[in-house]
Amino acid sequence: MYEWNFGYLWQYRQLFANGLMVTVGYSLLCIVFGLMVGLVAGIGGLAKTRLIALPLKWYVELFRATPVLVLIIWFYYALPVLIGVAMTASVAAVLALSLYGGAFYSEIIRGGIISIDPGQTDAARALGMTRFQVMRRVVLPQALRRMTPPLMNQSIMQLKNTSLLSVLALPDLVYQGQAVAHETYRPLEAYTLIALMYIAILLPASKLVRRLESQRVE
Amino acid sequence: MIDIQGLQKSFGDHVVLRDINMHIDKGAVVALLGPSGSGKSTLLRCVNLLTIPDKGSIRVGTHEMTYSGSATRLPGDRALARFRANTGMVFQHFNLFPHMTVLQNVMEGPATVLRAPKAKAREEALALLVKVGLQDKADQHPAQLSGGQKQRVAIARALAMQPQVMLFDEVTSALDPELVGEVLGVIRELAAEGMTMVLVTHEMAFAREVADEVFFMRDGVVLESGPAKEVIDNPQQAATQQFFARYHAAPAR
After folding, report:
1. Exposure string (b/e) for A176-201, b if CB count within 10 Å is 16 or more?
2. For chain B, which residues make up each domain, given as ranges?
3. Over residues B222-238, mean pLDDT
4. DSSP β-ladder status, B221-227 and B213-218
5. A192: three-class secondary structure by DSSP
6. CB–CB of B81 and A128 under 8 A?
7. Are B95 and A125 an interchain contact pair (Cβ–Cβ within 8 Å)?
8. Where are the domains of chain A?
9. The whole model's pTM is what?
10. Which CATH architecture has domain A10-216?
């Protein structure tokens, strides 16, 4: 019978705390940048001019069809060689994850916008609003309300995806867990602890999303 | 006030408007009547360019737009918006903005399109709500209103832009019968005040009473037109007679 001993990990609490901060930090960065990319790609994908809409659609399809891990590795090892620019692991990681998240965010945003009753657009245009005003005053405010739960779900996935940054030796929570496991020869406790730490953050977030979803039902 | 010449519109292979020519005087109330698919709503939507015609010209007041088939370079978004600000439209399904209060709905046109100062827009919006009898609903949201109340707010919202022409697209078709009267009352008042109006409606008795002129449409053309009472009571064409026969046979409401 294995003898659990979490007490052993207490001396490494600083490492775990650092790992947590790094994970949360990268998550926030990738969520924010991802949302910015998603907003542009989502709204741009609805443009009438094929010159704008088509490349954006290609981007979305490409990034949705590639595993996150492959993207992260490719952005770190292959991209710098391709474009001749040196890249730190951090930059490559944030770039890869932001663009990956952006592709999914853009589909959520696009879906949210087209789900708004076309009668709303009719009424707004009939008042004399330009397309920009229609979007800003009537469509987006309603669409954003609808998009929030799926956007939050996607953000939860972004956070989970940051665990893959450990393969680039970025000192996130997983990386720290591995480091402690190797030093203490106690992988069970170390990995169980980081799993619990992820759950501790994500379970409340998930509950919040559920509450928002049920509130929204009109 | 309104001049339509040679208007044509198709959706893909389906020809909806074949060749529409119409003239509507200032202050006139015109009813567009006809069976489903005759093109009435499409024509109405062409008047304020919510639907862009394939060919023809439309003049509303001093604003004019001409289309000559695929050769036309379509006017920019701003030009179209300016054209539309000149007309007010009320829809069958209300289309009120659910994320705004009733008062904000009515204020929205002047505040955003005309860039009126908020205080002035609010004042005028309140006055319009009084006009349609809904001032005590000002701070409620559309979801809390009945159909008839929603439609009256929609009328106030359109009027806030001080349009030269009001367009009504089957505005009572989605209402419970008891609520139809309150909306028709507001429209009747507007007509009495001299607003130029075009109504697509199935309310024959109302059209007969309030409209000056009736255009009967079928298969994308205006088959018959003339003074309301004449066309409805004494139709000349066979198709028109057939259409109004049902109205005359039905018991009076």
Report:
1. bbbbbbeeeebeebbeebbeebbeeb
2. 87-162
3. 87
4. antiparallel
5. helix
6. yes
7. no
8. 10-216
9. 0.82
10. Orthogonal Bundle (1.10)
